[in-house]
Specification:
The complex is a heterodimer of chains A (about 290) and B (about 425). Chain A is mainly α and about 290 residues long. In chain A, about 30% of the residues are buried. Chain A is built from 13 helices and two strands; from the N terminus they run H-H-E-E-H-H-H-H-H-H-H-H-H-H-H. In chain A, helix 8 crosses helix 10. The longest helix of chain B is centred in the first third of the chain and has 25 residues. Classes of the chains: A mainly alpha (about 290), B alpha+beta (about 425). At the A-B interface, helix 12 of A face helix 3, helix 11 and helix 18 of B.
């Protein structure tokens, strides 16, 4: 290492300082608060050690919300990936009007999620909402989109997919642009069907982009809050209450800051483990494809 | 050179002074937050008129958002909010937390000028906590039973007096796009009001004298089971309906009856919003026990503004003249206005409101009732939507309620 390179770590200081202020300090403070029984309505903080963690882990509400998070997260990402990939392939194969079409498809992602969800909420409103009124006009009795526990989950998944499918579509479409055309032509000359070309040529070539999109979306969707907050508020009952909704309920409605902080830490650990496992699994699939 | 230096110094000093003065000027604006509803739009408008233009800024929002914003601001002892709208139940919690300014001295000082003796003792009790006055009462609100008189007459049904009458009428009028009844079960506030009615009309209420839950006993289970049965006649999406959605359902002729606030009565006869002008009539809610609320505006203990000026602004907005004008939107809490015969003739829902006040019930007077409501409505909704059995849901709600109240020091032994 040459002498001038030794001082390069100094250049990391501004970013590290910023990270400390906006990320590490709040995280450390949340971990500190998680060891206290701290109700915002009173100035008294009582040290309870791991009490908040034990309380939470023995609650069925936490595990229910964890399960709801997993169902909604995997449901959304699976739907977004399938539809986004199909749209990317359609755009790749269709050379006419691609730009206009992709811009139109990308619109839901440009709108702020809260606003997009508000649109959806009014569209799904019973009786006078656009979707409901249209279906009723043609004689179809629509389901109770936001009032039935099962349909509320489906509505949340559809709402997230509506907003984030364009992102997956654009990333995969960009990756498709880098595809080596000679491989496709060679496969066609060898008589491979479209499905075999997709399965054995296109998908293996896109695996890095696929791993990226799935990982990023999963990380995102586990922190899913705004869409559920606006659309169902976690209801009906607890049907769409995810871990972030539960944390919000504890912190901002019940003002139990200590317990909410403990739940934040638990979520962080569980999501980190889950994502590391998924990432490792996808990478293994990728390496297997390479061999 | 010297002159330009002096100019530069002078300009810098002026800039610094202007920068320092800006926060002081902006603090003079009185910031009011409140729940968006017709009476609040009227009364906050009256507050804006009470002071020179631009001195009062008002933000109205759904009540749960207002409570969140107020709780977060007050718990951090911030002076970002000066005046806030509080229901009687949230007032007790905010006062118990020391977040509100006691108004006793100002009340005594301006008693004569603003005729503050005109408020009856029951109202003063609702806006007080631990012997201190904390809020200026602006509205007495009660829930009424709205029903389509034309449809009832056509079907030969009388206005319901009991919950059985209500259920039979809803079953009879439920057809196609016309729902038998509205039902507002959006958590927390709307669902809490509906639950409160069922628990009082069919059940034995919320707590015993030691604040131990009784809503999971036989009568409570019967009440929520009845609620679940009634949900068969409610519009689709009722679990996400609050007052706005239920009002629209009534106005658009999509529901035949149901529980709704006094403050929504006038809009039924508004031809610009309603398709059922003159067709709705009102009675006291069947079975009694629907919510009665005495709401008002309080001053934040952390406000850095002139609290006496704020008090006078509140007193102006709730003067006798102002309340006569505001009587269209809410029941005025002043005795002299409440007894005004002209108002009863002008607003045809007033007789029903008086009857509802007689057999209505306020929320239990414990400062943590909103948190209890959060727990109970969550489990009631699980029961109503069939996620769990009614008894199991209420037992779980009672267990969580006891744990919460124990942690807040309600049970000494």
């Amino acid at each position: 290492m040459v002498r001038w390179q030794r001082g390069l770590w100094l250049f990391c200081l501004p970013s590290f300082g910023l990270l400390t202020i906006v990320l590490l300090w709040p995280l450390a403070y949340a971990i500190y608060l998680s060891f206290f029984d701290y109700y915002l309505g009173s100035d008294v903080r009582t040290f309870v050690g791991l009490g908040n963690y034990i309380d939470l882990l023995s609650e069925t509400r936490l595990w229910n919300s964890m399960w709801t998070t997993i169902v909604i997260a995997f449901g959304s990402v699976a739907l977004e990936f399938v539809v986004g990939f199909a749209l990317a392939l359609a755009l790749y194969g269709n050379r006419i009007g691609t730009k206009a079409f992709s811009t139109l498809l990308f619109l839901p992602h440009i709108i702020t999620p809260v606003v997009a969800t508000l649109f959806l909420k009014w569209m799904l409103a019973s009786n006078w909402g656009l979707v409901d009124a249209t279906l009723l006009t043609i004689g179809i009795e629509p389901p109770d989109w936001l009032g039935n526990p099962l349909w509320a989950k489906i509505s949340v998944i559809l709402a997230d997919a509506w907003i984030f499918t364009p992102l997956i579509m654009i990333v995969l479409y960009a990756a498709l642009q880098g595809l080596n055309n000679s491989l496709l032509e060679a496969a066609r000359i060898d008589g491979a069907s479209n499905w075999r070309i997709l399965r054995h040529v296109v998908i293996p070539a896109l695996i890095p982009a696929i791993i990226f999109t799935i990982s990023v979306r999963l990380m995102d969707v586990f922190r899913f809050f705004d869409t559920i907050y606006v659309l169902t508020g976690g209801g009906p009952g607890t049907a769409t209450e995810t871990v972030t909704m539960y944390t919000y309920q504890l912190g901002f409605r019940m003002l139990q800051v200590g317990k909410a902080s403990a739940l934040g830490v638990i979520t962080l650990v569980i999501v980190a483990v889950l994502l590391l496992t998924i990432n490792r699994m996808l990478t293994r699939i990728y390496r297997k494809g390479d061999q | 050179m010297k002159t330009s230096r002096i100019w530069t110094l002078g300009a810098s000093a002026a800039l610094l002074a202007a920068t320092l003065a800006t926060p002081a000027l902006s603090q003079e604006t009185i910031r009011i937050i409140g729940h968006r509803s017709p009476p609040n739009e009227y009364y906050t408008g009256a507050m804006q008129k009470a002071l020179p233009e631009g001195r009062v800024s008002v933000e109205l929002m759904p009540i749960d958002k207002e409570m969140e914003l107020a709780s977060i601001t007050m718990s951090s002892k911030s002076d970002a909010i000066d005046v806030l709208y509080l229901t009687d139940s949230s007032l007790k919690r905010f006062a118990a937390n020391g977040w509100l300014e006691p108004l006793d001295d100002l009340w005594a000082k301006y008693k004569e000028e603003y005729k503050l003796d005109d408020f009856p003792p029951a109202i003063m009790e609702a806006v007080s906590y631990d012997g201190h006055i904390y809020s200026m009462p602006v509205l007495t609100n009660t829930e009424l039973f709205f029903y389509r008189k034309d449809l009832f007459d056509e079907a030969g049904i009388a206005a319901p007096k009991t919950m059985d009458d209500y259920q039979n009428a809803a079953a009879k009028l439920d057809s196609g796009r016309m729902s038998g009844t509205i039902m507002s079960l959006k958590p927390v506030d709307a669902a809490l009001n509906e639950t409160h009615w069922y628990l009082n009309a069919v059940g034995d209420g919320w707590f015993d004298e030691n604040w131990r839950p009784i809503f999971n006993q036989e009568a409570g289970v019967k009440a929520i089971t009845r609620m679940k049965e009634m949900s068969e006649f409610a519009p689709r999406g009722f679990t996400s309906h609050a007052n706005d959605e239920s009002t629209i359902n009534l106005q658009q002729g999509l529901a035949a009856m149901g529980l709704q606030w006094f403050t929504r009565a006038a809009s039924m006869d508004d031809p610009q919003k309603s398709r059922v002008v003159g067709k709705i009539d009102w009675v006291a809610p069947p079975g009694g026990g629907a919510r009665v609320a005495n709401d008002g505006f309080a001053i934040s203990a952390f406000s850095s503004g002139d609290k006496e000026e704020m008090f006078r602004m509140l007193a102006e907005a709730s003067s006798v003249d102002s309340m006569i004008k505001g009587a269209e939107f809410s029941m005025p809490p002043r005795l002299s206005v409440l007894q005004n015969e002209e108002l009863s003739e002008k607003y045809r829902w007033y007789p029903a409101a008086r009857a509802a006040l007689e057999d209505g019930k306020p929320f239990p007077a414990l400062p943590d009732f909103n948190d209890v409501g959060d727990i109970v409505t969550r489990h009631v909704l699980r029961a109503v939507t069939g996620e769990v059995e009614v008894k199991a849901a209420l037992d779980q709600a009672a267990k969580e309620t006891e744990e919460l109240l124990a942690s807040r020091g309600y049970y000494k032994n």
